[in-house]
Design goal:
The protein has helices at about 5-15, 170-175, 220-230, 300-330, 345-360; strands spanning about 30-35, 45-50, 50-60, 65-70, 80-85, 85-90, 95, 105, 120-125, 130-135, 155-165, 200-205, 210-220, 235-245, 250-260, 270-280, 285-295. The chain is of the alpha+beta class and about 350 residues long. It folds into two domains: about 35-135, Rieske [2Fe-2S] iron-sulphur domain (Rieske Iron-sulfur Protein, 3-layer Sandwich), CATH 2.102.10.10; about 150-360, Alpha-Beta Complex (Naphthalene 1,2-dioxygenase Alpha Subunit, Chain A, domain 1). Strand 16 and strand 17 (about 285-295) form a beta hairpin. It starts with 5 loop residues before the first helix and ends with a helix. The chain binds FE2/S2 (inorganic) cluster and fe (ii) ion.
Length: about 350
């Protein structure tokens, strides 16, 4: 067995120093998805995001609001309290807060001091998603929310799901950026043997990184073959783009077609998958997924089959990266990792995440 020389190990460590990892501070001044729209209603809904406890609900008028999940009196979680109209009444000693976070009533005294309350956070709903800004509220700019027009298009159908992921969000971004792992981690679900060695190209623009892989010709795995009618064909094409859009969002877009047919007349089948990464802590993450397709829009059977197959594959990511996280926890002075050419967009992503985190620390 050959182990890398001291020089190589040192070079690897130097490179790794520039990249975000599980110990890098989380980026606060950014839009993240806090919940699916359907999760927020007239109940107090708690979720910890970026190490902050948040409680969310809808006012009687239907507006989604987010507040710090902590009573200003003795820190009782407001999510374990109850709603009275648009107000929350703390479940411990009854302090009452309005939906702007202002303390408006104290049961044990007539006077309620003005100007005291709890933090509120800006929420914006787009399509099925609710975005939150947990950093400096003055910097929350709605125009910076990543756009995914297909989520609201009638030309697209989608299915969605959620995983609580026992790993950090940096590793998940890296996982999504280089789908070489499809051949191995997903050998029994969405991967094919030829995927890892297929040609690829990269696009590296500050804050927007892409890896485009062209697997042509190939044979499609059942989830794509059986749903597009290309099953069993050895001339299928699979053109996949992995795209980092923000610290909280990665999109995978794939086109499938029969490469033996004339390009002007053949049908192309497209899918998009929004991989929505919302750190809970440095070691855990909320993993929301929306998977869209531009074909078989009303076919419930295809939708159910795709959902089952794809979410089985995403479960493999969650389990695989959960296992990886345990190894990262054990890393010591002998730890090093080497990168290869196909890692370049993932490395660029990690360098960008670290830079963003460091800018906030300043
Ligand atoms: S902790 Fe909420 S009222 Fe006392
Ligand atoms: Fe995966």
């Amino acid at each position: 067995m050959t182990i890398p020389t001291v020089n190589i190990i040192e070079a690897c460590r130097k490179a790794a120093d520039k990249m975000a990892n599980k110990d890098t501070p989380l980026i606060l001044n950014e839009w993240y998805v806090a919940a699916f729209k359907s999760e927020i209603g007239r109940n107090l809904f708690a979720r910890k995001i970026l190490n902050k406890r948040v409680v969310m609900y809808r006012t009687l008028e239907g507006q989604a609001v987010a507040l710090e999940d902590r009573c200003a009196h003795r820190s009782f979680p407001l999510s374990k309290s109850h709603l009275d109209g648009n107000n929350i009444i703390c479940g411990y000693h009854g302090f009452k807060y309005n939906s702007s976070g202002d303390l408006v009533e104290i049961p044990s005294q007539k006077q309620c001091p003005h100007g005291i309350g709890i933090q509120t956070y800006k929420l914006v709903e787009t399509g099925p998603l609710v975005w939150i800004w947990l950093g400096d509220q003055q910097l929350a700019d709605e125009s910076k929310i990543p756009q995914l027009p297909w989520l609201e298009s009638e030309q697209w159908a989608s299915t969605s799901g959620y995983f609580f992921h026992p790993g950090n969000y940096v590793s998940m971004h890296e996982n999504l950026m280089d789908l070489t792992h499809l051949t191995f981690l997903h050998a029994n679900t969405i991967g094919t043997p030829d995927y890892a060695s297929a040609p690829y190209k990269t696009e590296l623009k500050e804050g927007h990184y892409k890896l485009i892989r062209e697997v042509v010709p190939t044979t499609l795995s059942p989830v794509w073959g059986e749903t597009t009618g290309l099953a069993g064909k050895e001339t299928a094409a699979r053109i996949a783009t992995s795209e980092f859009l923000s610290p909280g969002l990665h999109q995978v877009s794939v086109s499938f077609y029969d490469s033996a047919l004339d390009e002007n007349t053949r049908q192309t089948f497209k899918i998009h998958t929004a991989h929505i990464l919302t750190p809970q802590t440095n070691n855990t993450m909320h993993y929301f997924i929306v998977h869209g397709r531009d074909f078989a829009l009303d076919d419930e059977h295809i939708e159910a089959f795709m959902h089952e197959q794809l979410f089985a594959a995403f479960q493999e990511d969650v389990e695989g990266l959960g296992a990886l996280e345990e190894v990262l926890d054990d890393r010591d002075q002998y730890h090093f990792e080497i990168s290869v050419a196909s890692d370049s967009p993932a490395v660029a992503t990690r360098i960008y995440l670290k830079k963003r985190a460091e800018q906030e620390q300043v």
